Amino acid sequence: MPKPVHPDRRPAVVSGASSGIGATTALTLAAAGFPVALGARRVDKCAEIVEKIRAEGGEAIAHPLDVTDQHSVDAFAKAVATDFGDVEVLVSNAGHVSPGIIHEVDTERFATEIDLNLLGAHRLVRAFVPGMVERQRGDVLFVSSDVAVRARPFMSSYAAGKWGLEGMAHAMQMELEGSGVRVSIVRPGPTWSEMGTDWEDAAAGDVLTGWIKFGLARHSHFLKPKALADAIATVVSAPRGVHLNLIEVNPEAPLEEK
């Protein structure tokens, strides 16, 4: 049977929680007192994070989650409801980017990446938001990217997906106004994560060269995932009556020599 939810107990779901921003967000929310359900395809990695959370006195569970598979999303939502009861917070973070020139990328690959970065978020919305609306309480947070407002070369499907994600989020903000469900966006700038670690060196070099050429890499600093996790925790912890609808987080430039 689902556990009864105390008004101050706010179970949170984090997708893409096996590494990077997602894993750090799960740790940060758990430390702040949120029971956290971690979801990712690499559920073994999530299980390691769950062990760490529990060792530190937090409450966490992990279940397999592939946001490109409707059956996986449905099974995940059912498992979380059984373990935690009603979900109060949804952090939609799962995403992936591969380098490529738009006219050279196969349409099938392009569609697969859009499916993960945009449609996957919608599947999570369908699974968790109707219950929030019914209860008149909830937070939905989409982890976007600064490519949504400053497209970067060689990341075409990722840019298209994040533009679409923010469009969906802004529409939801209007649709859910007055419902008790807050929809928010955290928009990271360049961040150290596992994204890009599977690229070939030449492709990574082309991407970074393109960033520099078009003024998209003004300095060498990158964010650590904890900066984004802290921003996410701040948004979903805002008191009722306050809606932090969009936060963009960028790395501070190194000090210039005088």
From TrEMBL:
Molecular function as annotated in GO: oxidoreductase activity
For this UniProt record, give its keywords in alphabetical order, as a comma-separated list: Oxidoreductase
SUPFAM superfamilies in the cross-refs? NAD(P)-binding Rossmann-fold domains (SSF51735)
What Pfam families has UniProt attached to this entry? adh_short
* The keyword Oxidoreductase is assigned to this record: yes
Q: Which family does it belong to?
A: Belongs to the short-chain dehydrogenases/reductases (SDR) family.
Q: Can you name this protein?
A: SDR family oxidoreductase
Source organism? Nocardioides marmoriginsengisoli
